[in-house]
């Protein structure tokens, strides 16, 4: 079966279609999906969603773009993450990281939050889900300084050099629908190089629908198109990517009780 290592099924556009999405996932042989947290405000709905479906699990974290995380502007603290991470269906910390693309300095609050998530990962033993955009050097620097030791570089769009640095720290590299885009030549070259035992696939749905659905609403059933493109790039049967990415998913997110 296939797995989607990163999606946002709790977002309103997808949750409203959940029965249909689950049907499409089953038809596409997508057996598991990780529903990734971007704030704590929506936590009750996210955890209720994954509790309702055996094939869904969750992470806990606050996206680096979220400046005022809660309605009252409160910044999350370490205990917020640690307490929620105890839940049996929470299998990762994140999505966390650094994003300098939309926000301007000073961004000390963003770097401090990233450090806090790394600390939560180390204290809980759960893997990190890292988002990085326009912040390569600082992302790797903070990972090293805080001794981040396992997780995934989600929706990877950076260079082979960054992928190699992350893998040296114990991280997996996850490819989204972007790898299917005609313009993504550099990323496709990275997808050819990442060792099979470090490769994951994802949708990041509802965003980044792969070709041939580009520009449309994305959902976990479409992760197969990511696998097919990577298989084409590497000159292997798609079953090779299916097996490797699924094995890696359960190895990394080892809290999942997978029969």
Write up this protein.
By secondary structure, this protein is of the alpha/beta class. It has an eight-stranded parallel sheet. The longest helix is centred in the middle third of the chain and has 17 residues, at 108-124. The protein has ten helices and eight strands. α4 (78-85) links the parallel β3 (56-60) and β4.
Give the SSE map.
Elements: E1 2-7, H1 12-15, H2 18-27, E2 30-35, H3 43-51, E3 56-60, H4 78-85, E4 90-99, H5 108-124, E5 128-133, H6 136-145, E6 151-153, H7 160-168, E7 171-175, H8 185-193, E8 199-201, H9 223-234, H10 238-252
Parallel strand pairs: 1-2, 2-3, 3-4, 4-5, 5-6, 6-7, 7-8
Helix pairs in contact: 4-5, 9-10
Give a concise summary.
The protein is an alpha/beta fold and 259 residues long. Helix content is 40%, strand content 17%.
């Amino acid at each position: 079966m296939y797995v989607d290592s990163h999606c946002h099924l709790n977002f309103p556009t997808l949750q409203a279609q959940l029965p249909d999405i689950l049907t499409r996932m089953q038809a596409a042989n997508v057996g598991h999906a990780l529903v990734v947290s971007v704030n704590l405000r929506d936590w009750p709905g996210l955890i209720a969603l994954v509790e309702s479906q055996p094939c869904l699990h969750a992470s806990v974290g606050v996206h680096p773009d979220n400046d005022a995380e809660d309605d009252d502007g409160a910044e999350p603290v370490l205990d917020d993450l640690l307490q929620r991470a105890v839940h049996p269906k929470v299998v990762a910390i994140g999505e966390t990281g650094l994003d300098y693309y939309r926000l301007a300095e000073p961004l000390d609050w963003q770097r401090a939050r990233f450090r806090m998530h790394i600390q939560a990962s180390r204290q809980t033993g759960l893997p990190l889900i890292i988002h990085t955009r326009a912040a390569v050097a600082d992302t790797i620097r903070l990972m090293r300084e805080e001794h981040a030791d396992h997780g995934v570089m989600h929706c990877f769009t950076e260079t082979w050099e960054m992928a190699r640095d992350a893998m040296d720290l114990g991280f997996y590299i996850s490819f989204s629908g972007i790898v299917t885009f005609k313009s993504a030549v550099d990323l496709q070259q990275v997808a050819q190089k990442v060792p099979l035992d470090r490769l994951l696939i994802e949708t990041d749905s509802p965003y980044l629908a792969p070709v041939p659905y580009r520009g449309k609403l994305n959902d976990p059933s479409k992760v197969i198109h990511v696998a097919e493109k990577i298989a084409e790039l590497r000159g292997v049967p798609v079953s090779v990517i299916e097996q490797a990415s699924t094995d890696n998913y359960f190895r990394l997110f080892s809290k999942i009780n997978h029969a």
